[in-house]
Amino acid sequence: MKTEGYSSQEHYDEMFTKEGAIRPHYREFYQFLSKVSSKKMNQLQFSANKTQKAMGMTFNVYHDNQGLEKILHLDIIPRILPNSEWKKLEAGLKQRVHALNLFLQDVYNDQKILKDKVVPPELILNSKDYLKPCMGLTPPKGIWCHITGTDLVRDKDGEYYILEDNLRCPSGVSYMLESREIIKRAYPQLFNDEGVMPVSDYPAKLLKMLQFLSDKPKPVVGVLTPGIYNSAYFEHSYLALQMGVELVNGVDLLVKDKKVYMQTTKGLEQIDVIYRRIDDAFIDPLTFNPKSMLGVPGIFEAYKAGNVAFANAPGTGVADDKAVYAYVPRIIKYYLGEEPILHNVPTYLCREENDRKYVLDHIDQLVVKETNAAGGYGMLIGPKSTKEEHGRFKKLISENPENYIAQPTLSLSTVPCLTENGIAGRHVDLRPYILYGKEIEVIPGALTRVALKEGSLVVNSSQGGGSKDTWVLYN
Q1: What pTM did the predictor assign?
Q2: What is the pLDDT of residues 92-125, one digit of tens each?
Q3: 212 shares its domain with 300
Q4: CATH number for the domain including 270?
Q5: Sequence-ordered strand ranges (E) for 257-387
Q6: Which residues belong to any copy of the Circularly permuted ATP-grasp type domain (predicted)?
């Protein structure tokens, strides 16, 4: 298979150096690529596509008028990470999750970080994601963020940067697990020769972590799903099956004497731990959104009484806000007395005078984001915008500075992908998964999301992105 014409250009490439040399951890795979035919690679890709369909590895796109379930395209060429690189990522992610957990416990209780003005009190207390019913609560075992899927990107300097902390209901881990099974079958000998760290024990580790949240010797665990029309329903059912636990909807549960019960063919059975895949606002219509048809009336009172545990704990979203993100380096320093191992994308806080002045003076070079917007709304990409748009955002920032942050535009790293024209580089991000039970553990693999279109930086599955298996090497 030829790789001529593949070049890293201005960005960091995971396989080739700028001089065109093969990076050491890719040498074995590159030798394989050099010997295998294009026909064989296309056959492997075709088989992978068929297997995905057979497994039902689909997701729904709500805005898609066709209403079809889609397959998250799995590129047949794995992303390979050396162990030395992974060790740094692992240490940085453990540090970050530890600090964010301490932050959540603090802001819902003593609020020391707010009193010390390390984080502006109004930023937290006025946030729509700060759940006042959670004030004064300490979740089981003192853990708020049990499952985290942190998004990282690699800039042209080769360094990883944290792009986002997903502390609510992070998705995608089922694709990481199933992709591994497909790719292992594609390259069985190569997989063994490379010495790839396993991810297949994730469901067992997830179950162990969930069971840890209860003091019962054999707690009953369930996965709470919004239902079959949810975009991640495949994942909900897959994880419940792999763990050997019940998959339940809100209508399957009821609360009696501040305890939660499942309705079964044998009668009511108490449930002790719930891995919820429902957003905070919909958990309990009596406490949060009264219009919710997905949650369970009274379940939050059962949670407060200590009769049921949730993963993740309600209220974690306040630490997953674009404006709070900018303060995470200070949060790490405040609680742990350490410098961050992994850095944020440099972020300018328009609420701070010096940062605001820099943003207004360099708006044509920056990406400006509204802190309470999502999905690409409320955003200005300076280099691709007009002077009129620059002027409009300058006015918005000046009038309401606390609602905006700004960041430099990044050049995402590229990884080799199989395309219609052979092997070419495509931009990627990285989502490792972290479990927090008795200890914090980073799963030695990740969901690598790929922008399949040439030159595109959009990796989201709902906008045409794909995925890769991520190999973390033992050595």
Answers
A1: 0.92
A2: 999 999 999 999 999 999 999 999 999 999 999 9
A3: yes
A4: 3.40.50.11290
A5: 259-264, 267-270, 273-276, 309-311, 343-344, 348-349, 366-370, 379-381
A6: 78-451
